[in-house]
Amino acid sequence: MKRIFLIIALLVVGVGIGFAAAWVLKSMQGSEATGEKSDEKEILYWVAPMDPNFRRDEPGKSPMGMDLVPVYAGGEDLSEDEVQINPLVEQNMGIRTSAVKKGKLDRKIQAVGYVEYDENALHHIHTRVEGWIEKLSVKDTGDPVEEGQVLFEIYSPELVNAQEEYLLAKSNNNQDMLEAAAGRLEALGLSSEQIQELNESETTSQRVRVFAKSDGVVGMLGIREGEHVTPATHTMSIAELDKVWIVAEILERQSSFVEVGQKVEFELEANPGRTYKGSVDYIYPELDPTTRSLQVRIMFDTNNEVLRPNMFARVTILVEGSESVLHIPSEAVIRGGLTDRVVLAAESSIYRSVPVVVGMEVDARVHILDGLKEGDSIVTSGQFLIDSESNIEVAIARYEEEKKEAEKPINVSVSATIREFDHEGQRLRIKHGRIPEWGWKSMTMFLPVAEESLFDGLEKGQEVILDLERKPGERAKIIGVQQVSEEQ
């Protein structure tokens, strides 16, 4: 019997201990849950990443199929254009940042170009007499020619008469007339070799041959056999293929960066994978009124390669940076809309969009003219989602206000009356008139004095003209005092 009571007592004690342990464990779990809950921020609502006006009370998808982003409580102290993001959400969004850097930014101007004949090695052929083309040795534009090759033969009564005069002077053994006749033949286009041949053969040629003066190709052919020509007729042009130009078209907005002597690299569609090097030889004085582009001429060594006119070229002009500038990754810039902008990353996962003025883009970097300072941290990945939540109108208004503030003059002069001296604090209490340059109304205030010597000769109630200075980020101060005489 005692044994039964003992067993029952042990069971009661065991059940009691179990209930006690369960109660303690539940209390601990409840306190942990309460602690975790207190650490988590309250979610106010869920918003579409690309449409801040689309809000829901629970997670889901936006009309564009994107996951809704939670908006947490505790952001009451943020300004209108700032956004605070939970660190976990930051990680899920893949947000990356980069610092604004300052240094020389070498530019690369990309342009299109084409091969042209070197006009310094291009010569045009005109006859010096009137006549008819009896025989044409070259038939088409582009035909190769060699130095000394016969280009065409011309019949000209004037040339025939000049040859007969030469032979007549020779037969009469009149040296003066012979020299005059030889000079006339040379003036009409005959070479010294042709005159010597006439002198030896003593036979008039009805057809006078015209020779090529250099190797090359026929760049232009303007005559055919049997055609009547005059000295004004452009018969043909001979171009040397081993001497060509590359003429590049530079956009108007990039034209100010191009200078003679800059290094150039270009590739030809005809020779893919081959890079040619040269330099800017000449900048044409006028822009093309149709394409609004500036032409530049590029000289280079062909290395005995034949480059044919009108070949297409992809040209890169290397412009070395002359001074240090601010620059950021190009991917960080959000273009379009009201203005170009970037997302500035502050502490505690706070972000805001700021307007920027961008300059030339070079490779993967872009020059920042205004809106950022060296060392600022900007978002380079995920900035579009943050920008969609930011109030860009407020950011633009702030930017315009800061810009106006920076444009205000640093130094102004104003009439004032001295009210009180504070030698210990090196201040003057004055009543000044309106300062429209700074947007100040007439008021009484203390202003610091730059030098203690400015107190000399001043009295309470005295009318003076104060020279004030206010640098950005500093309080205005008195840097000069002009005493006004009673007569004035």
Terminal-residue CA separation: 126 Å
Give the strand line-up of the largest sheet.
7-16-19-18-17-20
Q: Helical stretch count?
A: 7
Task: Note the main sheet.
Answer: 6 strands, antiparallel, barrel
What share of the residues does DSSP label as strand, in percent? 35-45%
Broad shape: elongated
Determine the mean pLDDT. 79
Helix content: 10-25%
Low-confidence stretches: 19-38
Topology, number of strands: 31
Radius of gyration: 45 Å
Structural class: alpha+beta
List the domain count as a whole number.
4
Structural features, described:
The chain is of the alpha+beta class and 488 residues long. It has 4 domains: 96-104 and 324-406, conserved putative lor/sdh protein from methanococcus maripaludis s2 fold (Beta Barrel); 127-234, no CATH class; 244-319, Beta Barrel (Elongation Factor Tu (Ef-tu), domain 3); 409-483, OB fold (Dihydrolipoamide Acetyltransferase, E2P) (Beta Barrel), CATH 2.40.50.320. Helices cover 22% and strands 40% of the residues. It has 7 helices and 31 strands. It has helices at residues 2-39, 87-93, 157-171, 175-187, 192-201, 383-389, 392-407, and strands at 43-48, 51-56, 69-72, 82-84, 96-99, 101-104, 107-117, 122-125, 131-136, 144-145, 150-155, 207-211, 216-221, 228-229, 236-239, 244-251, 263-268, 271-288, 293-300, 312-319, 324-329, 341-345, 350-355, 357-362, 365-370, 377-381, 411-422, 427-432, 443-448, 463-469, 477-483. The strands form 8 sheets. The protein has a 6-stranded antiparallel barrel. The protein has a 5-stranded antiparallel sheet with strand order 29-28-27-30-31, with no helix packed on it. A hairpin with a 2-residue loop joins strand 1 and strand 2. Helix 3 (157-171) packs antiparallel against helix 4 (175-187). It is elongated.
